[in-house]
Amino acid sequence: MATTGQYPERLLVLGGGPAGAAAAMGLAATGYPVTLISEPRPFAAIEGISERVVDGLHQAGFSQALERLPEPTPRRVTWNGLTSAANRERLIDRQAFDRALLADLERAGVRVIRGRVRRLERCGEGHRVRVTQAEGTRLYPGDFLIEARGRRAPAGDRQRRCGVASVSLLQRCRGPSLPPGSAVESFAEGWAWMAANGAAERYLQLTLDVAHARLPEKASLTGFILGHLRCLPQAAPFLQDAEPLGPAHARTSTPSHCIEPVGDDWIRIGDAAMAVDPLSGNGIFQALSSALQAPAVVHTLLRRPQDGELAKRFHRQRVADLFNRYSRIGRDFYAMEWQWADRPFWAARRAWPDSEPLHRRFGLSDMRIRLLPVLQGEFIVAREGVVTPDHPLGIWHLGGVPLAPLVRALQQGRERPPLDTLAGWPPVSAEQRRLIDNFIAGCRPAPGEQRG
Predict the structure, then answer these.
(1) What CA–CA distances, in Å, run from 285 to 289, 293, 317?
(2) d(C-alpha 347, C-alpha 100), whole Å
């Protein structure tokens, strides 16, 4: 169990999903008394996660949640008229998964409050949260606030950058048991994701354009969803002998980015900071990406306020970079669908967020050595790193070995600098030398090739 109470500040985490749980776990391990307030998910749903999410959960220190993960299952994708089955994903029951996260947190010494946040208030130099619980309404004070309630977190007066307005419609069905697996299929008005959990339940989801979907009244949503799915070949096994189970649910899936995700005594993480199009399949992964770094940002703001602006810059830049990167991944995948390129859903998404390439080629002359905010241990610190057109946040080290001294030596014309003698370099292992050799080889264009 983590030891909490080393520091006097009381930390409040709003939201018990993967992002909030990972941040709470890391902050408790650092020594802070942490209270996490979580409202149970209002409806059952299955989500697909990749092995990168599993790695992130290991890194965050979860055990019960990992023990309950199912094995990877096949994922069939029909896009632009072609079907492939190369990918696999783990299909998790989000309600059960979130309960396991909370159990891990309580084991780690985090105080978990199950209730609904009604109001956030400023209280002196801190915060106060009004929460409705089974036994009534209570106030919980805190010195630092971590907002992790996902897309539903209030934006307040904070500026947001949003993508094309999208809505996802979810319908559960029950029928004879199917082998566990999932499928994706594109169609003229959007795309569909279907999943079976290996038992009697199936989960069917459509993602559509808000401006052009012509959605019916809520009572007719189930028929609307099933009507679209009956036209899709990949949906046939999921619809066979299935009956709707409960009402349909609609939720926004519009990409959004909170321009300013951090202040002196608050931080937004996960989908509350930036949420991407569900097409990328990386929602939980990107939420964990910002949450795993949040404890160092918070710790720096509280323990080293002189480095507060550095910590804010670190978080702000990484949230923006995640948003841009995953938005461009989605754009490029949408652009691969040519059957309906001129239909409103596809035309808007193949052109957003911009025309910048996902990756840029670069050479040694394109590299710039800059002082960067980086994560070192429990703090955000300033270190020399290397900025490239493809790595605007910069690269501090390769395999634990600082990169700036090597690039400086190469730019000075040294063909193969003796690594162990460069300033700031520790002795390098065989694996580290292999990484550096690959980097050097990549810096030098092939004969006759020009880069710029």
Answers:
(1) 6, 13, 18
(2) 41
